[in-house]
Fold this protein.
Amino acid sequence: MSNSKVSQPQTKRDFLKYILGGGLFAWFASITYPILSYLKPPKQREVEVKSVKVGKLSDMEKESGQLIRFGNKPVIVVRTASGDVHAFNATCTHLDCTVQYKKEFGVIWCACHNGKYDLNGRNISGPPPKPLEEYRVVIKNEEIFVSKKV
Ligand code: FES
């Protein structure tokens, strides 16, 4: 009989501990969850794009390059010394930095680890393991259009 009198207060104390523990956990979660949700960047959905108009051919000098957005991807459009226009995915095949046209060397260059691609998109020096993905270029009425190759 004396055993049940001793155990009853402990049961109440345990119950209060659970309630307080649960309350603290709920309070902590209600503070941290909104903060973590705010800090986490939203997922970007793939934007479906068929073709992008770059601009007039006459506005693009020979031996120059420019970056455009193709959906949510960067694409580099390069006009060679002979006047040909090429377009490639501008995401480096090494660690995904954005490449740029480097006129003084006549290459597409990645500044992150000095990776170089020729003007046909082939990886020619540095760490990039693969060529750049090529896009299709169509020139219609002096306008340059870029689309994905099928
Ligand atoms: S990310 Fe381009 S060379 Fe490393």
About this structure: The chain has a mean pLDDT of 90. Helices lie at 2-39. Residues 92, 94-95, 97, 110, 112-113, 115, 126-128 surround FE2/S2 (inorganic) cluster (CB under 6 Å).
